[in-house]
Amino acid sequence: IVTVNCARLLKADHHATNGVVHVIDKVIATTTNSIQHLIETEESLETLRAAVAASDLNSLLESEGQYTLLAPTNEAFEKIPRETLNRILGDPEALRDLLNHHILKSAMCAEAIIAGLTMETLEGTTLDVGCSGEELTLNGKPIIANKDVLATNGVVHFVNELLIPDSAKTLFELAQESEVSKSTDLFRQAGLSSHLT
C-alpha cells in the first residue's frame, strides 16, 4: 500500500502527453510543523512535552528525518500509577527508553500499516500492529485515539495508553506480569520486595 502524505494511492501511472497522474483519496494539506512543534502546541500532550524536554529528545524530534511518534496523551500518563510515573520521570535512562519505545524508525501512515506487521522502535524493541474491526491495534490493544497527524519530519499517532518497555520497569513490575508472579508474592511476604523495586 502506497501513501502520499498519508493519502492512499488509488490509481498510479496514468500517462498524459505532458506528464503522469497518480490518483489519491484525499486533498493534501500543507505541512509546516515538525513533530517537536506539534508536541509543543498540542494541549493533550502536555505531559509528553515535559518528558521529551527532560530526556533531551527535542533535537531529534525537530531534526530532518522520517519518524513515527506514537504520542501518549495526558490521559495515557494518568492511567499508570503515580508512583510508577514519578519513578520513570525521575530516572533519565528509563525515561529515554520509554520515549524511544514510542518512536518508530520510519514514517508509517495508518493506511500503509498491514495487520500483523512488526515495527522496530528507536529503543530497539518491536511493536505488533494489527486491526480490530476498523481500529488499529498496538500489541493487541485498540489504543490509537487519533491517527495520521502529519509533520515535516514524519507522522504522529495519538495513543491513549502508555507503552512501557521492559527496560523501564522494575524487577517487581516485570515479575508481576510474568509466570513468576507467585514468587513475587513470596518475596513480598518475606519482606524482601524492596530489593525488587
From TrEMBL:
PANTHER family: PERIOSTIN-RELATED, TRANSFORMING GROWTH FACTOR-BETA-INDUCED PROTEIN IG-H3
InterPro entries, sorted: Adhesion/Biosynth-related (IPR050904), FAS1_dom_sf (IPR036378), FAS1_domain (IPR000782)
Cellular component terms per the entry's GO annotation: extracellular matrix; extracellular space
UniProt GO MF annotations: cell adhesion molecule binding
Name under which the protein is recorded: BGH3 protein
Gene3D superfamilies: FAS1 domain
A single BP term in Gene Ontology: extracellular matrix organization
Pfam family, one: Fasciclin
Domain FAS1: 1-28, 32-163
Annotated organism of origin: Oreotrochilus melanogaster
